[in-house]
Design brief:
29% of the residues lie in helices and 24% in strands. The chain is α/β, with parallel strands linked by helices. The longest helix has 14 residues, at 85-98. It binds cytidine-5'-triphosphate and the ligand C[C@](O)(CO)[C@H](O)COP(=O)(O)O.
């Protein structure tokens, strides 16, 4: 009857990517940005969200670099990161259960590589999702005209009406998210798409342009400028 006990909130941080597109010469989450590793910035923001009961970082098997690059992290760590982000997140959810989390608890999944996230944006997501039956994600309406490429040229212009860019955190109940990831087929690039495949419709919660994911080489300089000029 644990479902009658108020749910706790946890964060899971997938941190097992290789950072191929970023070209940083190693996993981008350990690259230095504004004096600290990218993941250290990410974890500092999560640590400031007082409603989170624990933050779990999911590393690649054999990763020994994390403690060097996040020496102040006081949360939970596990080593079962998988070949895809979805595999890494699924491993994190199993670890949460093993550590006593319950199926009706909320889980906020946040990319290690989104190091510009601010605690207040995470709180906005929590406030929006707590009363919601499904959960949701930070996201932004697409502001530009969208083109589909074909052989290096424009194949067609795509209607951008109603199109949003998904960010993280993405917040869902542990049980439904585990089940959704376990039954998902194809390219599941975020938690919301796994939940959508079960017929649910996650809530879109407006995020910030600054909460971008470090993906390409030029993203490091932009993150550096933004972090250095923050109060
Ligand atoms: N197998 C994977 C793949 C990704 N991630 C994490 O998921 C987040 C977003 O993924 P992405 O930007 O695709 O990271 P990488 O996989 O590192 O980058 P790339 O695809 O360019 O190799 C990152 O924090 C990354 O560490 C993960 O934990 N496990
Ligand atoms: C989860 C995500 O950050 C939402 O935008 C994104 O899909 C992860 O990036 P990837 O390149 O698909 O791993």
């Amino acid at each position: 009857m644990t479902e009658h006990i108020p749910p706790d909130l946890y964060a899971v941080v997938p941190c097992a990517g290789v950072g191929q597109r970023a070209g940083a010469g190693g996993p981008k989450q350990y690259a230095d940005v504004a004096g600290r590793s990218l993941v250290a910035h990410t974890l500092e923001a999560l640590a400031a969200v007082t409603r989170l009961k624990a933050v779990l970082v999911v590393l690649s098997p054999g990763d020994t670099a994390f403690p060097v690059h996040a020496p102040d992290f006081a949360g939970w760590v596990c080593h079962g990161g998988g070949a895809t982000r979805a595999d890494t997140v699924a491993q994190g959810l199993r670890e949460l259960l093993a550590r006593g989390a319950r199926l009706h608890d909320w889980v906020l999944v946040h990319d290690a590589a989104r190091c510009l996230v601010r605690p207040e944006w995470i709180d906005t997501l929590i406030d929006a999702c707590l009363p919601d039956p499904v959960g949701g994600l930070l996201a932004l309406p697409v502001p530009d005209t969208l083109k589909r490429e074909s052989d290096g040229r424009v194949g067609e212009t795509v209607d951008r009406g109603g199109m949003w860019q998904a960010q993280t955190p993405q917040m869902f109940r542990l049980g439904p998210l585990m089940a959704a990831l376990a039954s998902a087929t194809g390219n599941v690039t975020d938690e919301a798409s796994a939940i959508e495949a079960t017929g649910q419709r996650p809530l879109l919660v407006p995020g910030s342009l600054e909460n971008f994911k470090i993906t390409w080489p030029a993203d490091f300089a932009l993150a550096e400028r933004l972090l250095r000029t923050r109060p």
